[in-house]
Design goal:
Distance between the termini: 32 Å
Shape: globular
Helix content: 25-40%
Strand order of the largest sheet: 3-2-1-4-17-16
Number of helices: 15
Structural class: alpha/beta
Radius of gyration: 23 Å
Strand content: 15-25%
Largest sheet: 6 strands, mixed
Number of strands: 17
Amino acid sequence: MTLRVAIVGSGPAGIYTAEALIKQSAAPVEVDVLERLPTPYGLVRYGVAPDHTSIKSIAGYLRRVLESPGVRFLGGVEMGPDFSAADLLSCYDAVVYCTGAMVDRHLGVPGEDLPGSVAATDFVNWYCGHPDVPPERFSLDAEEVVVIGVGNVAVDVVRIMAKTADELRATDVPEEVLERLAASRVKRVHMVGRRGAEHAKFTLKELRELGDLLNADVLTFPDEVKVEDLAALSRQARGNVDVLQSWASRVPADRPRRLEVRFWLRPVEIMGVSRVEGVRMERTRLEDGRVVGTGEFETIPADMVMRSVGYQSVALPGVPFDERSMTVPNAAGRVADRQYVAGWLKRGPTGVIGTNKSDAAETVRTLLAEARPGVATARFDDLLSARGISPVTYDDWLAIEAAEGALAGSLGRGERVKLVGTTAMLTACGRGGRPS
């Protein structure tokens, strides 16, 4: 008997789960990958920076999984508005939730809600062409920007702001976004971490890319990148510190933009009356491994503040959720009878894209150990049809891809240029609006 499984979410975690099911199951398996957007690949499409083409190439691997026999992509269908957890359990023998971590963490400081204070996740979604964030969301009329956080997302954000539009012309950045990047008034960017250089979360490769920027002087402050015992650090941390310390001796070359990477500062207030005017920072130090304030303050002028202090997951209707860890409680991926979880929703926003592969494999082992093929009798297609919903198919997605390739050709820009908005994507695949 065939095992029928629904996977909610088509990012790396969801597609790796589909792959693991195909490879591990001894019995025949049918997998439906459900996605609220018309497009698959999740953060590979809407989270990886457009100039990181080598990382984005993982989409080719994910494509092969979606094209495997027994796997279907059903886009434009959303849990909550379109179907419930109970609906899925009536139609599938097992359900795996893989919706990732979609929102940013907050700083919890006064002034955080002022105009000009934004989430780095929104900015990433903007330059990646996510349909939830329209092109007009950012105008980049700020001359001075503070980015709070020293992880890879923060590095991506400041790199995109520091580059010229011409440097991004060959990427898949939407044309409307590229025009706004070309009109950017940003002159100075401060990337700020509350701990020291040795604690920064970015990878060495990404950090070095900042040092090679052609359009910006990249600098650090000697006292902020000083480390007492370099030999005690991991190889990764030593590499980061070496690079950061080398930037402290750089002489600015009067490039159009300036990037300052700062450490041992934490935001205590975002200042301004009607919009952001600056960030009040407190100098920090470590005490018994904890970050504490020193009582020494500094104000960094800013027209825009971007928080990049981590992602967190969002509860799914009808699915258990731990508000403290912001994950779905599970045991090796098992949530409840016939319900499972994988990816960031399972373990929190940790690891790299490839980490989701072993994570998914663990969940699938748990699922297959207690699988009951044939327990569900209803059909999901019938349920959607009765509700007047016609999902975006994989062929529809290929039509969207083809339209993006054609757009790039017409603009003389690289291999593809992303279409902006759900309506444009649905029109490209022969639909006039939302799947119906």
